[in-house]
Amino acid sequence: MVIPIVAIGWIFVVVLMAAAEALSPQGSLLGAFFTLLLYGALPLVPVLYILGTPARRALRRAREQMAESVGAAPGAESGTAQADAPAHRSGAQPDA
After folding, report:
1. Could you tell me where the DSSP H helices lie in 36-79?
2. Could you give the C-alpha distances from 52 to 22, 77, 81, 86, 89, in angstroms and in order?
3. Hey, which of 3, 12, 32, 35 would disulfide with 22, CB 3.0 to 4.6 Å?
4. How is residue 87 annotated by DSSP?
């Protein structure tokens, strides 16, 4: 998978930037913290969320298929046929 490799590389670079900020004569630990936060966590979280969407979608579909296959097992009543059927047809009289 490309996503974890990119994330690990990005974190590595940001940690090195923060270390350079903390160890610099003009730098500070507060600057290093904000470097980690603003260059690391804030940009990485939405990017990983967006790039992880296909995996979450596939997982959700797999769960739905698993639930359908368990519900459609022989001897098990799913009740979906009645739930999917319309209660009445528009303009038609109910059967007596």
Report:
1. 42-51, 53-71
2. 32, 35, 34, 38, 43
3. 32
4. S
pLDDT at 71: 80
Residues sharing a CB contact under 8 Å with residue 80, sequence separation 6 or more, in sequence order: 71
Contact status, residue 32 vs residue 19, Cβ threshold 8 Å: yes
pLDDT tens for 22-43 read 999 999 999 999 999 999 999 9
Residue 58 CA to residue 70 CA, distance in Å, equals: 18
**3-class DSSP assignment, residue 88:** coil
Whether the CB-CB separation of 36 and 18 falls below 8 Å is answered with: yes
For residue 4, give both structure tokens: 């974890």
Per-residue confidence (pLDDT) for residue 83, from 0 to 100: 52
CA dihedral 40, 43, 49, 52 (to 10 degrees): -70
Q: How many beta carbons lie within 10 A of that of residue 18, not counting itself?
A: 21
